[in-house]
């Protein structure tokens, strides 16, 4: 069912969705493998879609860790609200992650350890990508990590403009196969 819903959203807004199917559990595992859940106070997720990564974050986090997710797509937002309605310390926000700083103030969060992203930077306008990456760098603590996946390395140069230290991995068990970029905020 979620695959059909995801595909329909892709048909409606391919530039915003970026793929025809949700991410696999294999990609989800690679996306979270560098997270030190034991010492993490706050994780932000951009573009959770149907919540593949969100579910893994919630399963592995300490109960006091705050997770804040940003979803622009209204159908996905509603799906996430319903799917995770019983979770504590989870803020599901229907807005662009370009406004992340405003929500950190609203929810009195002053330390972000990780930002996980499912955003399709290759299909977003460069000005939007620039703004998101600039804000991400500014909200992450020193040595915090920005972890994103992309289907192509076309936007690596743009990401390196903000994050010089990038660890690159590959996950072939995804449709399509994906690159995982784990970026350290050296500030």
From TrEMBL:
Coiled coil: none annotated. Keywords: Methyltransferase, RNA-binding, S-adenosyl-L-methionine, Transferase. GO terms for biological process: methylation. GO terms for molecular function: methyltransferase activity; RNA binding. Pfam families: RrnaAD (PF00398). It comes from the Bacteria. This is Phospholipid N-methyltransferase. It comes from Clostridium uliginosum.
